[in-house]
Specification:
Pfam families: DUF397
Number of domains: 1
Number of strands: 4
Protein name: DUF397 domain-containing protein
Strand order of the largest sheet: 1-2-3-4
Helix content: 10-25%
Strand content: 25-35%
Distance between the termini: 31 Å
Number of helices: 1
Structural class: alpha+beta
Organism: Actinomadura miaoliensis
Largest sheet: 4 strands, antiparallel
Radius of gyration: 12 Å
InterPro entries: DUF397
Length: 66
Amino acid sequence: MTRRYIGWRKSRHSAPDAGCVEVGRADNGTIGVRDTKQHGTGHTLELTPTQWATLVHKIRTQQLDT
């Protein structure tokens, strides 16, 4: 099922003309993450609010597995 995401916003940490990500939210709370270079036509990574919070926490504290 394809969800409709609203309120897409670009990461504040993106360079002006470089690759970056956008984040949007669906009515059911699902978080969508997409590549801005695709101009809304590419794939969207879908995360639950809990998964999103975990991902952001790990990024901010540099705890991502490599």
